[in-house]
Amino acid sequence: MKITSISQQQKNKERYNIFVAGKYLFSVDEVVLTKYQLFKDRELTDEELSEIQEEDAIRRGLNKAIQYLAHRVRSEKEIHTHLAKAEMEPEEISLVIKRLAEMKYINDLEFAHLYVRTQVNTTSKGPRQIERELVTKGITREYIEEALADFKDDTQLENAVKLAAKIVNRSRKSAKRQLQQKLITELIQKGYTTDLAKEASAIALEDFSEEQEQDVLGEQLNKLLQRNRRLGPAKCRQKTITSLLQKGFSYDTIQDYMREHELDFEEEQD
Fold it and tell me: 143-153: per-residue pLDDT in tens?
């Protein structure tokens, strides 16, 4: 078959339409056009046509991948998924991935190191959460372990304490015991180990004084008394103490506070 004309596309100046016998046959990237020396009156065999179209498909895949990479560094799996959504053939995707690696556009080990550093510096995530995220991005266990070595123990503790302090600030109305358990639970959910979560929570609660505990207890007690006074003296006392126990206050602390403040449930009903 003979190429009868070639025209540049209007919407994409880097692509060219190829016509055979006056009819549109296919389009190619400018790089492919040059590589295969496509010009008017050039004769093409079926084998050459197939090779050109395959090369152009790879070139389009490269362009899509590079545009995708322009926003941020990606893992090989992320690029593979992106190209698959663009309905590229698996064989073509493999060739695009290979080309990208040769061009040093992708490197999963470097990606893992960069991802860990970014998460450490910009989020409150612990190592286990970062590890889970890297797994979903297709990073191998070997690369993950090497990259997570960047997340030093002292930095983990520092980040965990910062997160714990934020939780304390928004949980001022909780008993210390309940707040400590809340801190440990949330830190573990964020990907920190149990031991580190306990250490960080203890540090964050160092300034939580007995006076603060008493203030929180008094505030919670007054609210419960107002709510439960309609139940009668015995029921009011029982329900109030039960609620305070559920909020993390110890029975002895509750009793001491009531005696110190001379709370009389009979009087609360008058």
Answer: 999 999 999 99
- Mark whether 10 and 99 lie in a shared domain: yes
pTM of the model as a whole: 0.74
Q: Are residues 203 and 216 in the same domain?
A: no
Which tens digits make up the pLDDT trace of 216-250? Answer: 777 777 777 777 777 777 888 788 778 777 776 77
- Residue 235's region, left for phi above 0, alpha for psi from -120 to 50, else beta, is alpha
* pLDDT(269) > 70: no
In this structure, the answer to whether residues 20 and 95 fall within a common structural domain is yes
Structural domain including 253 reads 211-269
Residue 253 near residue 177 (C-beta atoms within 8 A)? no
Q: Which of 168, 189, 208 lies at the terminal end of a domain, its last residue? A: 208
Q: Domain check: are 197 and 222 in the same one?
A: no
